[in-house]
Amino acid sequence: MRKWEAEERYREFEIKKWEAERQESTRRLEAEREDRKAEMILKEAEFELNKKEAAKQDTSVGNNKVFSDVMRSSAICMSDDPIEAVAFFMNVEQLFDVYKVPTDLKALLIRPYLRWLGSRVAKALDLQLAGCKFNSQQGTVE
After folding, report:
1. What tens digit of pLDDT does each residue of 51-79 get?
2. pLDDT tens-place string over residues 10-43
3. Is the N or C terminus of the chain more exposed, i.e. has fewer CB atoms within 10 Å?
4. Which residues pair with 141 in a beta bridge?
């Protein structure tokens, strides 16, 4: 009878061991499944974010930001020397051509890079178009 009891205990031990392994395996599979689910949700969110960013790039605000970033990183600053103004405008014109900047954005993009001399020239042009005379020596409107 003792042999039979030992075999019975051994079978019970094996059954418990098998059930524990099965439960551990099930837990691992569930954890992997949850990880995959979380990864899929993350990828979907990333895809939606990329989709929104692409749509934003298509808008004029997005274009304005892209072109202003290009200008910030590529344009040389205008100096106070009138001789160097030519090089500045040539550089800016070349950037506009390379990046195919729309005509309606060119004035907006170049304005922050103009020094006082460029601002005076721009004001003079505005006043001349309005029919006023601008005295460049004194910086006054007549």
Report:
1. 777 766 666 666 777 777 777 777 777 77
2. 999 999 999 999 999 999 999 999 998 888 888 8
3. N
4. 134
List the beta strands (DSSP E) in the chain. Answer: 134-135, 140-141
**Are 70 and 106 within 8 A, CB to CB?**
no
Q: Which residues contact 76 (CB under 8 A, 6 or more apart)?
A: 87, 88, 91
The residue assigned the tokens 């205990």 is: 9
Tokens of 63: 């274009």
d(CA 17, CA 47): 45
Query: What is the total residue count of the chain?
Result: 142
- Residue 140 three-state SS: strand
Pairwise CA distance, residues 49 & 65, whole Å: 18
Task: Identify the CA nearest to 69 among candidates 105, 103, 122.
Answer: 105
49 vs 72: CA distance, rounded Å: 26
* Amino acid at position 46, single letter: E
Tokens of 81: 């020397």
Q: Which distant-in-sequence residues (6+ apart) come within 8 Å of 99 by Cβ?
A: 67, 70
